[in-house]
Design a protein that fits this description.
Helix content: 25-40%
Structural class: alpha/beta
Shape: globular
Oligomer: single chain
Largest sheet: 7 strands, mixed
Order of helices and strands: EHHEHHEEEHEHHEHEHEEHHE
Strand order of the largest sheet: 3-2-1-6-7-11-8
């Protein structure tokens, strides 16, 4: 039986990094995939090539459309909030009369807008972010709160919080650091409380068969692959040889929020509809 799944993200490119394999897999299986993005990502880090004319947000929305096409998304909605920037580098408040930064948005009002989409689409599943907002981005924290409130209003049966196993991420980063000069190693301290512990993860979705679509989704976000200081994480990912990319990005992880799933002693679920 076909279902509708709504993927709620903060910025263009978030879908590529966290849920693109699941989206492509569901679409290929005949399910309806709806992508809702809260901002245009106009405060994202990018090289002057992409941002010098002040049109980064427009460019990123174009990139989002190309990513959605690669994943065979059926419908894309942009809520139009302003990008809040990073916690340590927040964007200035928008002018009076403009949409607020997502981090400042009225939760009830934003949740009502998302709930309208959930109800119109008769969504069986909503994906958001974990309670840490992944790495603590203010807009990701807002997506977590707004998504939870919207699902409660709409009565959406299942809420899955897109995440990454923290221990796996840290292990991989430590390996990479061993091969980097001391001046370029990554400070891992901020990541020790990011995302989710493996014990909290309820779903492990095998998307190895959709690694090409995942890479096409990432490649669509060209503005986020480089900055004036050199390649960014997305650029590094898309340069990986196919077999390595498939290995690294062969699974996606979620923590089920509604209804709650106890983890003790249970194997991870392999289908987003397993608890419907």
């Amino acid at each position: 039986m076909p279902h509708t799944v709504v993927f709620f993200h903060a910025h263009p490119d978030d879908e590529a990094l966290l849920t693109s394999g699941t989206m492509a897999k569901l679409a290929a299986s005949g399910h309806r995939v709806v992508l809702v993005v809260a901002t245009s990502g106009e405060a994202g880090l990018a090289s002057d090539e992409f941002r010098s004319d002040g049109r980064l947000g427009e460019r990123r929305l174009g990139e989002l459309r190309r990513s959605a096409s690669a994943l065979r998304v059926h419908r894309t909605e942009i809520l139009g909030y302003a990008d809040s920037g990073l916690a340590r580098q927040p964007t200035p408040p928008p002018p009076a009369g403009s949409p607020p930064r997502l981090a400042d948005a009225d939760i009830a009002g934003a949740a009502g807008r998302l709930a309208d989409i959930l109800l119109r689409e008769r969504a069986a599943v909503l994906t958001t972010y974990d309670a840490r907002g992944g790495y603590g981005h203010p807009d990701h924290l807002a997506v977590h709160a707004i998504g939870a409130a919207a699902a409660a209003i709409a009565g959406t049966p299942v809420v899955l919080q897109a995440t990454v196993p923290r221990d796996r991420l840290l292990r991989a980063a430590r390996v990479v650091n061993r091969f980097l000069p001391a001046s370029r190693t990554v400070d891992l301290a901020p990541w020790e409380g990011a995302y989710s512990a493996s014990s909290e993860i309820t779903h492990r979705i095998d998307v190895r068969g959709f690694w090409r679509q995942r890479r096409q989704s990432m490649l669509a976000h060209a503005s986020q692959a480089t900055a004036d200081g050199g390649p960014r994480t997305l650029g590094v990912f898309t340069r990986m040889p196919g077999p390595i990319f498939r290995l690294v990005f062969g699974h996606e992880w979620y923590q089920q929020a509604v209804p709650a799933v106890a983890r003790a002693g249970r194997p991870r679920l392999e289908n987003v509809f397993d608890t419907l």
